[in-house]
Structures are given as C-alpha cells and as structure tokens.
Write a structure and sequence with these properties.
alpha/beta, six-stranded mixed sheet, globular
Length: 238
C-alpha cells in the first residue's frame, strides 16, 4: 500500500481539508472595509514570517519523526510562500523577507503583506507549555510589518495562541492550524478561489490567566468564542 502514499488524489483531498478548516478571525479594520479576499494583481507584495516557507512548521509533530522537523528537505509539498508566488498575477512582484525591519517595510511601498508565524512542531508532553505565545521572532515581525503596511497574519499552530496584544495592529487574521504539505489550500482561500467557511473548534482565549476556559463557564469571556468564524465569499474579480 506504500505506493499510494502521497498520490495526487490524496493531496487534492488534503488541500480541500486545508481550505475548509481555515478560520477567518478578523477581516479589515472595520466591517465595511474587508481586506480579504486579496487581489492577485498588485505592484509589489511582501511575504514575511518564520512559517511562510517551512514544510516542517506547517506539518507539526508526528511528521517523518516524533517531534516533527524544520525546513523543506524531508517531505514534498507546497509552502505558503511558493503557493502565493504560483497564485498571484505574473506581473505581481513577490518579495520574501523572513523578519524585515520596519524601515525596510516602509521604504518599499508594498501593496500589502502576508505574515505567517506560529509555533514550532511538538508532540505529546513536550508540547505542554505555560506560555502559549507565538515563537520568536514572530511578534517582532508582526509589529514591524503590520505597523507599516496593510497586513494579513496567518497563525500556524495546533492550538490558540496569545494574539490579543497585536490585534489592533493587524488588518486580517487567519487561523490556519497545521496545513501540512498542502499550503496551496491556504492561497486558494486568501485569493478568493474559495470562500472562508471554517469555525473555531475550541475557544480562543484573551489572556493565559483565563485558562482553562470553556463554553458554559461562569466567567466565559473569550477573544473569539467557540464556533466563531467570519465568512468571506469567493472573489468575482480574481
């Protein structure tokens, strides 16, 4: 049966699962000015973040080995960066800088930026943490990029993370969970080939001192409640 591992039919199904599991948490600084879906045609766009071009981070633990891996050398597939390059208009210039400083972002006059950050792979008890934060240099990347240009932040993680401190700076936020090898599923929805339909499978907390927190708790006050997820229809112009 090993001959069926990674066949195209299975990859297409995995890509569909990625599309349907993406959860849109924020879309624009105001409801009447949504940022997503993104235009494919733009003069120049920035892709940034430690998770934008890393199969291992997309896959998480229990991939190839127990605790997962970092990089693109152990499995085939598509990263978020490569799928953005394949999806935008051929005239759109795509610039990748993993962790650019604010001056670089301001001086380059980008139309918009896509930032992919999150957790490093883990499995079982080695993933137990009291500090559920975005791994460095992710917070700095968000601050530098989103403080200078319209930005979409993609969170790559197996669970909700601390994002409230950055919420007002970010224009749009997508919880992508662990999309595995099929990063193309992320681009499919970002650029409006398909709409956002995913809903949160668990409550997204505001601060760590709220945990544990579940629906029905007396002081249930989440950042995003269980079942939350904005919708965005497919683009008619892309």
């Amino acid at each position: 049966m090993a001959k069926y591992l990674g066949i195209q039919k299975h990859r297409e199904l995995a890509r569909e699962a990625v599309r349907k599991s993406l959860v849109l948490l924020k879309n624009g600084k105001s409801a009447d000015k949504p940022l997503l879906p993104l235009p494919k045609k733009a003069s120049k766009i920035l892709v940034a973040g430690s998770h934008a071009d890393n199969h291992g981070y997309q896959c998480g633990g229990w991939t190839i080995n127990w605790q997962g891996f970092s990089g693109n050398n152990f499995t085939s597939g598509t990263t978020i960066l490569t799928t953005i390059k394949h999806t935008v208009d051929p005239t759109t210039e795509v610039i990748y800088q993993e962790n650019p400083d604010a001056d670089y972002v301001k001086s380059n006059k980008f139309s918009y930026a896509i930032v992919a950050v999150g957790e490093h792979p883990y499995a079982e008890s080695l993933g137990d943490k009291l500090n559920l934060t975005i791994r460095e240099p992710g917070p700095g990347t968000i601050t530098n990029v989103c403080g200078a240009v319209k930005c979409i932040v993609i969170i790559i993680s197996g669970r909700p993370l601390v994002i409230q401190p950055y919420l007002s700076t970010i224009d749009a936020i997508v919880a992508a969970w662990l999309p595995g090898t099929e990063g193309q599923g992320v681009a499919d929805v970002l650029f409006g080939h398909y709409g956002f339909t995913g809903k949160l499978p668990r409550t997204w907390f505001k601060t760590l001192d709220q945990l544990p927190m579940n629906v029905g708790d007396p002081h249930y006050d989440p950042l995003f409640p269980f079942g939350f997820g904005l919708t965005a229809k497919p683009s008619k112009t892309n």
